[in-house]
Design a protein that fits this description.
By secondary structure, the protein is α+β, with helices and mostly antiparallel strands. It contains six helices and 19 strands. Bound molecules: calcium ion.
Length: 336
C-alpha cells in the first residue's frame, strides 16, 4: 500500500506469548549509510481481551514511563494476561538516549508529530507507525509522561475534555483506577499533533500522565506509574494476577481548560516562585517574579495568575524563557 510504513519489525502482533524486539526505522548516519535505528517494543498476548498500547519516553527526559514499562515487560508473563499488551518504553529513543525532550536527530517533539507521515524525519516515521499500525490494534492507549526537566507537576493521570461523553466518562473511570492523587483535564496551549489527541480522536480510551519532574524521579512517582498501570489493567481484566480493588483514596478531578490557566513567562530570566505546589491562587495574584540576568538590580518582572484555582504545575528549571509556561492553575471539575 502507498501509505505502508517504512518501519519493519520481526514482532508478530497476532502471536501469543511474550515477544521482545525492535522497530527498525530507516536512518542513515555519516558513518553508516545502510542503517536502521532500533526502537524497543514488546508484545505480551494471551487468551482474549482488549489490546492496550503503553508508551513511555515520548519525551526523552521523562523517566517514569521508561522505567515502569521496562519493569512491566520483564515482570509480566503471558499466563497473567487476557488480551494483548503492546509496550514501547522508549518511543522517542533518540531523545531517551540523549536525555532530552526533543529528538537530537531531527530536533522534533514526538508529541507534536502525530499522525506523522510514511516518509518523514525519524520522529514523524515513528509517529506514523504508531498511527497506522499500532493504534488500529488498540482499544486502550496509555502514554506515560512527567514534567521532565521543563515542568514540575502534582502527579496526575490526564486527558482532554471530549465532546463524546461516553468516551470521556470511560476515560475518567480508567484514569481513576490508577490511584494517582489527581485526574487532570488539560487543554493544548502549545500546538497540535499529540499522541493522546490523535488516539482520542479515533475514539480510543486514552490516558496520559504527568508524574512530577526529572528531579522528582524516585520511589513515589514510579509507584504511581507502576501500580497505576497494573490497577488499570486489572480493572479491564487484562491483568489477572490478582482481583481489581479500587484505590483506597479517590483521585481529585481537576481541570485547566482555559488558555489563561497556563501562565507564560512575560520575559526571560530566573523565575522565583512565591507559591508552593498545591497552594490556592486568586486571579491577579503574583505567582512569582522573573529576575533579569542582564539587569540583575532592576526590579524583577511580576508573573500574575490570570485565573483562580490551585497551583498544579510550575516551571521545573528556574532559568526560563519568554513565552515558556511557568505555572498551571487548575480548578475542581465535575463530569457533565
Ligand atoms: Ca511530556
Amino acid at each position: 500500500m502507498a501509505n505502508d510504513s517504512l518501519i519493519s519489525t520481526d514482532i508478530d502482533y497476532t502471536q501469543h506469548g511474550k515477544q521482545m524486539g525492535v522497530l527498525r526505522v530507516p536512518q542513515s548516519f555519516n558513518t553508516a549509510g545502510w542503517a536502521n535505528y532500533f526502537i524497543p517494543i514488546a508484545v505480551i498476548q494471551n487468551g482474549s481481551g482488549p489490546t492496550v498500547l503503553l508508551s513511555g519516553g515520548n519525551h526523552g527526559d521523562e523517566y517514569e514511563g521508561q522505567v515502569a514499562l521496562m519493569n512491566l515487560v520483564r515482570e509480566l508473563q503471558p499466563e497473567q494476561v487476557q488480551g494483548r499488551l503492546i509496550v514501547l518504553p522508549m518511543l522517542n529513543r533518540p531523545a531517551c538516549v540523549a536525555g532530552t525532550r526533543l529528538s537530537p536527530i531531527d530536533g522534533r517533539n514526538m508529541n507534536r508529530a502525530f499522525p506523522g507521515q510514511r516518509n518523514d524525519t525519524i520522529t514523524g516515521m515513528i509517529a506514523h507507525y504508531v498511527s497506522s499500525v499500532l493504534l488500529p490494534l488498540a482499544d486502550i492507549v496509555v502514554d506515560i509522561h512527567s514534567g521532565g526537566r521543563t515542568l514540575q507537576f502534582l502527579p496526575s493521570v490526564n486527558m482532554h475534555e471530549l465532546a463524546n461523553k461516553t468516551q470521556m466518562d470511560e476515560m475518567v473511570r480508567a484514569a481513576s483506577s490508577w490511584g494517582a492523587p489527581y485526574v487532570f483535564i488539560y487543554a493544548d496551549v502549545a500546538g497540535e499533533g499529540l499522541l493522546p489527541s490523535y488516539a482520542e480522536s479515533l475514539g480510543k480510551i486514552t490516558l496520559g500522565t504527568e508524574l512530577g519532574s526529572a528531579p522528582q524521579f524516585g520511589v513515589e512517582m514510579l509507584q504511581i506509574a507502576e501500580n497505576g498501570v497494573k490497577n488499570m489493567l486489572r480493572m479491564y481484566d487484562v491483568l489477572t494476577d490478582s482481583p481489581y480493588t479500587p484505590p483506597a483514596v479517590a483521585s481529585q478531578l481537576v481541570a485547566a481548560t482555559n488558555a489563561a490557566d497556563y501562565v507564560m513567562a512575560p520575559v526571560s530570566g530566573i523565575f522565583e516562585p512565591f507559591l508552593e505546589m498545591g497552594d490556592s491562587v486568586d486571579a491577579g495574584q503574583e505567582l512569582g517574579q522573573i529576575h533579569s540576568t542582564e539587569m540583575p538590580f532592576a526590579p524583577p518582572s511580576p508573573v500574575r495568575a490570570q485565573t483562580s484555582g490551585l497551583l498544579f504545575g510550575r516551571c521545573g528549571f528556574p532559568l526560563t524563557q519568554q513565552g515558556a509556561c511557568v505555572a498551571t492553575i487548575v480548578r475542581p471539575y465535575t463530569l457533565a
